[in-house]
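Protocol step 4 of 6: structure prediction from sequence.
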Amino acid sequence: MNNLVVLGATGSIGTQTLEVVQSLNNWNIMALTANTNIELLKKQINKFEPEYAVIMKKNLIRKLEKLIKTKNTKILSGMEGLNYVAALKNTDLVINALVGAAGLRPTISALKADNKVGLANKESLVIGGELINDKYLTGENNILPVDSEHNAIFNLLKNHQKKDVKNIWLTASGGPFYDLPAENFKEVSVSQALNHPNWDMGKKITIDSATLMNKGLEVIEAHWLFDLDYDKIKVIIHPESIIHSLVEFIDNTYQAEIGPSDMKIPIQNVLTYPIIQESDSKTLNLNKLNQLTFKTPDFDKFKLLKLAYQAGRKKGSAPIILNAANEIAVNAFLEKKIKFNQIPESIEKVLNVNMKLKNLTVDKIFEIDSWARDKTREVIKNVYNNN
């Protein structure tokens, strides 16, 4: 049996990971973590009986202990608990499915312990890619990408050298509003923005998909994962979400990964790497494909994609500020404090500051992250008249 730690077990990727684990039947769950979803975590603990479980709020430990049937699971809390289970000895894989910047410290903890990371937390590389690459990557394939696009690129680059690659192409569905005129963005409701046409995801990533920020973050992630210049990382709108990404080689040929819109496939690829196994996912019926559509991204209408490229190229504090401001702005939209079109507006107002960073540390990253969050809240309150 292989030993697995799942960070963010109650979220979309976490729950699907546990479903795949059951179908594979060769994994032992060492630890599960959740933010506040104590009811689902309880069910998962009772089912998998891990050695450890982490709930972020310390005052929920006693409640969780009363709810679970097993007495063999030790309950931890907070970031200290996340870091502890990420670094557990005898771990074969840590799936980091945490949401947002909070995923960085556990990613580093896992890598420092020489644990392999299945990374669904793109923010770890968006805000910490420079630090991770400089200090914590000790060998090839320490990080296996879970995102469908990066997993596809990872698979397509096997047996190829960097010099063979002309460009990589990250596909994007375009979200629910790609064909909606920009002047109508101010009328977009929260429920409309959460209605993604192809993928079933958590709220934050679904809003990011609607603004195309998710693709922007993936561009920065791809830069660090594949060690490619931003000029070689392209985005193409592909509404059908059947081609999960492409690699363009120097001989002007393309290779693409094609499959159904099912996150269980890249999750299983990470769990079984480097072996491919049969999947319980539905089969893609090529005979029923009417067309495959490709469109050039509209960088003016979806400004966050442009800002992500700019921040990635600047490096320094820019990606950290971009990510932090986005997390606050998305949450403000979900809470109906700002309009959909004001998400990129508020982020751009904060992103104008770029600090030169030397001797980058985790603490410095989160100092900038905290500043950017406070600044974004200030912008939202003052500019958009929210109390």
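Step 5 (inspection) to follow. The longest strand covers residues 27-34.
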